[in-house]
């Protein structure tokens, strides 16, 4: 229930993004503010309209006005933080996101997810990568249905936090895979880290899991060949190239795309370029 | 307040009482007799033979123009038949289940209804005996269904028959109407209403998710089958809920399934002739496909209804395979109540027949959140986040893809999700586009890349992002059609590519791939190559006027046509032809265009080769004029679409074998091979010569196979020179290839030597060791070369001194010119075998080593050359990973 309530706070305002063009809505909100100049929610609503209209500076003024009238207005903190982040002010965004989080209860899961994500983005903007990663992790913890983006942002923050945090980056990606399934986006990010850590076998295992899905198999096999050749495992690399070629050949002529033909050319060049590994 | 009224009105219209089953539906087919005869009473019984009666679908009658079946009133309009008879059989499994029956009858002017011969209802007819000339009490409405409740006692298990006689008020009555619905009200089941749906989600060729909402929590059951009257399959969810969601699996592709929804106790809705869906074809199979596309539709007003009705009238009985919603599906804010009022209440018929695939719009996003995948939009729709319906898994319902037949659909979130070129939506999109090989790629999202309607694609962030970031990737992968909404108008582009800037930068000469309207009966259809050719042209359509119009300048130069008109789009895809049209709220076709694709060319024919087998077009083989010849004349024969060039017919050719030679110390060597022979068997100088076999004759005269130097004086030293051993790193090597005379192979992990490699020509290995560790005053006593052979040869290889300096990183065939810079033969690697092979340096080799140690000659190392064999040898080089397998020079000196 709290989850729904906080979403309503975030996604709604008194007139809730009324139907019609933004400028008409702005005009109507101006009129309402003229009648109710101390209604903080109206300023938050107008600030959101300004954000949608790409007038971030005007939006910030309205959110600040709302907070002056009602310092505990949670949505004002959140949207002010978002606007400040857009304005390249991550310090201000951090302050507002922390104020927003502090105003929420433990059951406000949707709000906490958004608040911690904004905090993570603010900290990333200040290059406080490890703290950002921890904020993202908190966002994931509170997300009822976390998206791939959250895991990717968290992993990227851990990756930026130094080599010693790469295992944590991998762990969060694996958590995402466990939760959401074998996703291209998450596996590709994890493979990059595996290769950075010289964990070729682990990276190959991830590629194999993508290959097993049977979608875009040819491309993944080609990538596998590249990785193995680069790792000096030439025979296996050549084998992967050959498998890629076989997979491409298995696609009926009717279903051949230009993209597939280009891939075939790349595979053949790779095979020829590795003549001295008995790729022929 | 007004929306509340709409909500409840809509709710009541859509409700179906739980515990009710339709036994005979409206618009059912009836047997009827319209010849004015007196049928007495026998025709009322269940056993009456009505096989000679006519058959027709209700409504039956005449005179109103709304009849599905027109019956006869006889030859004289002034003396019409008073009575017309109707009969219909139906089946009941268990009459004991029903507490009552509801009879809804449309009859003009009056009727008597019999159930299995028992009169159960008299409508607008006088009391007493009824004959075929009895007229009705008065005239009544020809459009109203008159409802009554009747006892179920006349029902039978199994076959039942309803019989009705419809009477006119007089012989000149202008019209006659008849339709009837019989509903069985179930016993002992609480009254529950289906207040939403049923509606269909996540369709695949073998599965369908059916959803509905009830006002009371029950368990869930879908009864379904391939015949309307035989819903003999069930799918259940035992959890009590008001939000029902049941996935039917194991379905047969391209099959119509009828279904009802309800609980394990009773069906609540469906089971009638209008509640069905079709499964799609197996992915990749081309089938005629009808798609309905609406955008910005959910206003709940009469405009929306008019657009829907226009589509229904247009499509008629043609099945809608897919239904696409382009966002802003429920105004104003995408709340659950607004979805009910402005979406579910508007489209009840198509919801239960056709799966809907939506994208989120900005108004939907006012109550929903892609980051948390929460809110009404995400609660209402079940979308494939794990690639369940084809395509690559996105992990989110915010953006996803699916396949239908030979069409791949991509659905993006232009509102809530990051539109970054490096974001997860782009990463997923790239993988998804790579993975599809469908004939057609159709993408849709809410914010149009090109519009001058109620929104402006030159100034609004989401629109600019989608154009600049996503459109290039889609075009690179051959997208065919892009559908969007947001502007409340219809705008349809030319056949364009590569326009990513503002409207002022659009240029027909730069961006139009094919001029014209795309109309087959006008300037011609847009034509594309099949196979996802990049940047081959696409049409961009804004279809955001399915619920309202909002004007705008409507002058984007990319558009063929811009209309401020209500309407929706219809796509008909059949094989490699896509026909699209925009119909307005009156059903008038206001725009249409066609895109066609070339059929994939047949694969080029293979060629038979003279010695059996085939080669593919584009491949070549080497053929010989004769199978045995001293010069083996060859040619390359190329296959070109079934035609093989050239004329030579032999797969191989061998030269006549010249005689071998007998060696003085026994044994033989083949023609062309050579051996080292010594003048004496023991000598400090060990003078030798190379004896070559030439067709049975051995050159030279020395007769000893080996020569042993006198034992060295005591105190000699053995030095092992091998890269990686004891810190030594002075061994360099490479090979040079006559067929690739400018290529350097200094980094190779192998040393190759070959008399005639098919690809690289003659291969010669070169190698040297740094001997600076040996004192210049030392006397060399012996030298042994050790090579690790990993691909042996059936011929032998000679090792010669090299007379020209070279560098490992730059040496090539041309720079070394090896065959012109050979010195003395210092040893021979015998034929055959793999593994470590040793070559004992002969006296010439020892003298060479000595001169390098003393410094009287430059150390140019050795060359490894074939002894006239074309069977190559492969050795591990100094770069090989395992140091123990690298080349080694063992020198003993004192």
What does this structure look like?
With 280 residues, chain A is mostly helical. Chain A has two domains: 1-144, Tetratricopeptide repeat domain (Serine Threonine Protein Phosphatase 5, Tetratricopeptide repeat, Alpha Horseshoe); 198-280, Serine Threonine Protein Phosphatase 5, Tetratricopeptide repeat (Alpha Horseshoe). Chain A is built from 15 helices and no strands. Chain A is elongated and about 80 Å long. With 894 residues, chain B is mainly beta. Chain B has six domains: 20-186, Sandwich (Jelly Rolls), CATH 2.60.120.260; 194-278, Immunoglobulin-like, CATH 2.60.40; 289-597, Purple Acid Phosphatase, chain A, domain 2; 607-644, no CATH class; 661-698, no CATH class; 717-893, no CATH class. In chain B, 11% of the residues lie in helices and 37% in strands. Chain B is built from ten helices and 55 strands. In chain B, strands 45, 46, 47, 48, 49, 50, 51, 52, 53, 54 and 55 form an eleven-stranded antiparallel sheet that branches. Chain B has a seven-stranded mixed sheet with strand order 21-20-19-32-33-34-29, covered by helices on one side. In chain B, strand 33 (577-584) and strand 34 form a beta hairpin. In chain B, helix 1 (2-14) packs across helix 3 (336-344). Chain B is elongated. The N and C termini of chain B lie far apart (113 Å). At the A-B interface, helix 1, helix 7, helix 9, helix 11 and helix 15 of A face helix 6 of B.
Element layout with pairings:
The complex is a heterodimer of chains A (280) and B (894).
Chain A: H1 2-11, H2 22-35, H3 40-52, H4 56-69, H5 74-86, H6 90-102, H7 109-125, H8 129-142, H9 148-160, H10 166-180, H11 184-196, H12 200-213, H13 217-230, H14 234-250, H15 258-273
Helix pairs in contact in A: 2-3, 3-4, 3-5, 4-5, 5-6, 5-7, 6-7, 7-8, 8-9, 9-10, 9-11, 10-11, 11-12, 12-13, 13-14, 13-15, 14-15
Chain B: H1 2-14, E1 20-24, E2 29-33, E3 54-57, E4 60-62, E5 69-70, E6 83-92, E7 98-108, E8 110-115, E9 118-123, E10 146-150, E11 158-167, E12 176-186, E13 194-204, E14 207-225, E15 233-248, E16 256-262, E17 267-270, E18 276-278, E19 289-294, H2 302-315, E20 322-325, H3 336-344, H4 348-353, E21 356-358, H5 376-380, E22 400-404, E23 407-411, H6 424-435, E24 440-444, H7 461-476, E25 481-484, E26 490-493, E27 495-496, H8 508-511, E28 512-514, E29 526-528, E30 539-543, E31 559-563, E32 567-574, E33 577-584, E34 589-597, E35 607-608, E36 614-615, E37 620-624, E38 634-640, E39 643-644, E40 661-662, E41 668-669, E42 674-678, E43 688-694, E44 697-698, E45 717-721, E46 731-737, E47 750-757, E48 761-769, E49 780-791, E50 797-802, H9 813-816, E51 822-829, E52 835-840, H10 843-854, E53 862-866, E54 873-876, E55 888-893
